[in-house]
Amino acid sequence: MADLDTEPDLRTANYLASRKLVTPERLRDFFAPKSIAMVGASDNSGWARLIIASTATTGFTGPLMAVHPKAKSAFGLPVVPSLLDLPEPADLAFLLAPVHAVESVLDDMGAAGIKNAVVLASGYREVGAEGLALEDSMVARAIADDVTVLGPNCLGFVNAHTRSAPYALTLPNPLTAGPVGVALQSGALASVVLTFAKAHGIGLSVLTSMGNECMMKTVDVLDYLVEDEATRVICLFLEEIGDPARFAEVAEKADRAGKPIVALKVGSSPAGQQAALAHTGSVVGDDAVVDAALRQLNIIRVTSIEELLTTGAVLGRSEEVV
Q1: pLDDT at 283
Q2: For the chain, percent helix, then strand, then coil, each to nearest 5?
């Protein structure tokens, strides 16, 4: 375990260095991969099966590759033992590997020239101080390897317009592309959102679960969605606002761009705050202060997933008419 006295300094250094890896320009490539490698995929991996099914549902046409040091096949896909054995670098690697193997995979990514990673593994800051130290170490390794990380403790994302879906849950079929971008700090709600959107004919642009936000923060995704031409309205499920000053800056940018933001902010009760802490290690803040800040930023606050999506859909259609 890392020295607890040095961890805050490492965390600050990681944050400052990661800013070069999570710009809107880098995220444009991150959320539109043309090829995907699943690291840890085998016939025994339920996560790999779900990703394969999701990419089939969206009609993803790029290479979907399996990487495993021992397995010979993964649901009909050929398997190579290492990312270094791929015929060419994948645009994105989805790491299904356990916590203890993640950093070595990041090193392979750096050596192979693969720039983008989704990390599924849990057991980081959401479990306490030891997990937080592991997360700090993992981020430092990703930065050294020039890798942008979404997660950990993350189920991935769906881009309905580019048809890429490195997404490790069931994806309702068909998926309707549209103007509503969604970022969720609770990945468990992603399938609920997708099912509701399908049932009510709500078209999505990008939907992403955020996980622990070790490197890529919700505000980074917000900034990306503001610049994304396919997105006209942005829906956020928030457990915390980690950098209030930057969040305000990007929210004002969205306002100037004419892209409404709708937010469902949870954690207003002590029980809700404890649930958020257990889920991603988030500290959610005082609800009255958050409520006032959202109003000041012209962010529409709602109280349910249904209201979040229906409000986003109405605003998205209004923007289309304009």
Answers
A1: 42
A2: 45, 20, 40
**Which residue type is seen at 5?**
D
**Whole-Å CA distances, 300 to 59, 89, 200:** 33, 41, 21
Provide the 3-class DSSP secondary structure of residue 228: coil
Q: Prior bond to 174 cis, omega within 30? A: yes
Q: What is the pLDDT of residue 281?
A: 42
Q: How many helices (H) and strands (E) does the chain have?
A: 11, 13
22 closest CA partner among 180, 210, 182: 210
DSSP 189-210: GHHHHHHHHHHTT--EEEEEE-
DSSP, collapsed to helix, strand or coil, labels residue 319 as: helix
Helices (H), 158-304: 190-199, 218-227, 244-256, 270-280, 287-296
Q: Residue 99 burial by CB count (10 A; 0-12/13-18/19+): exposed, middle or buried?
A: middle
Pairing of strands 73-74, 77-80: antiparallel
Strand order in the sheet with 157-159: 157-159, 204-209, 177-184, 233-238, 261-265, 300-302
pLDDT score for 317: 87
Grouped pLDDT means (10 residues each) for the chain, 322 residues: 61 95 96 98 97 96 97 95 97 97 98 98 95 97 98 97 95 93 90 93 96 96 97 96 93 97 79 44 65 94 96 85 46
* C-alpha distances in Å from residue 41, one per residue of 49, 77, 93, 174: 8, 9, 11, 25
Q: Copy the structure tokens of residue 310.
A: 């229906």
DSSP secondary structure, 98-164, as one string: -HHHHHHHHHHHHHHT--EEEE----SGGG-HHHHHHHHHHHHHHHHTT-EEE-SS--BEEETTTTB
**If we measure between CA atoms, which residue out of 64, 53, 62 comes closest to residue 172?**
53
Spatial CA neighbour of 112 closest among 130, 95, 143, 88: 88
Give the residue from 240, 237, 256, 251 showing the smallest Cα distance to 290: 240
